[in-house]
Amino acid sequence: MSSVAITALSQTRSLSSSLSSSAYMPDSLESIRLNDGACDPTTLIRGRSIPAYGMNYYDRIQKGGRDANPFFTLMGVEIGEMGKGSAILRMPARPDMMNGEGWLQGGIFTALADEAMVLAIYPLLGHDERIATITETTSFFAGANEGALVARGRLVKQGRRVIFAEGDIMAEGSDRVIARSAAAYAVLRP
């Protein structure tokens, strides 16, 4: 193995071990077991028991709020509105989300838009249906480095097997779109 590969492997192991023991990893998420030892499809999130598999994602969000999604808790995402074909999320920009140039890292725009699109889609699905991202593209029109972002997800077209959605990111208090994501999601059935 080359010295570059060994260094990269060492850094990866070091990062992995530091993340697993640091505040970056949510410690409020744990599995619960039934008396017979079988895995209970429930997660304990901030002291609340949230069914993980008996409900679809939208139902878990309705029941547990943002705590049903560890990403929301980690990033400080707040749920504004959720409805059939539309959703609004809010997320404060923090210094630890900035890139080396002092701007909010672009992947955060994409992740927030993705979550808004997903929450716009789930109310339209059957109880046993799920979705998985096929493709997602984000265009960036401006940056952000303070305040809060608002994401608006909306359904574009719903087919039997594929659903298309868009997600716009704006600075809170502005209607100016600073990033737009477009995605296609596969509809999964049991």
List the helices and strands and how they pair.
Blueprint: H1 3-20, E1 29-33, E2 39-45, E3 48-51, H2 57-64, H3 70-75, E4 78-83, E5 86-92, H4 106-121, E6 130-140, E7 148-158, E8 162-171, E9 177-188
Antiparallel strand pairs: 1-2, 2-3, 4-5, 5-7, 6-9, 7-8, 8-9
Notable characteristics:
Thiol Ester Dehydrase, Chain A; six-stranded antiparallel beta sheet; 190 residues; disordered N terminus; 4 helices
Structural features, described:
Strands 4-5-7-8-9-6 form a 6-stranded antiparallel beta sheet, covered by helices on one side. Strands 1-2-3 form a 3-stranded antiparallel beta sheet. The protein is globular, with a radius of gyration of 19 Å. It is an alpha+beta fold. Helix content is 25%, strand content 38%. The termini are far apart. The protein has helices at residues 3-20, 57-64, 70-75, 106-121, and strands at residues 29-33, 39-45, 48-51, 78-83, 86-92, 130-140, 148-158, 162-171, 177-188. It has 2 domains: 1-68, no CATH class; 69-190, Hotdog Thioesterase (Thiol Ester Dehydrase, Chain A). The protein contains 4 helices and 9 strands.
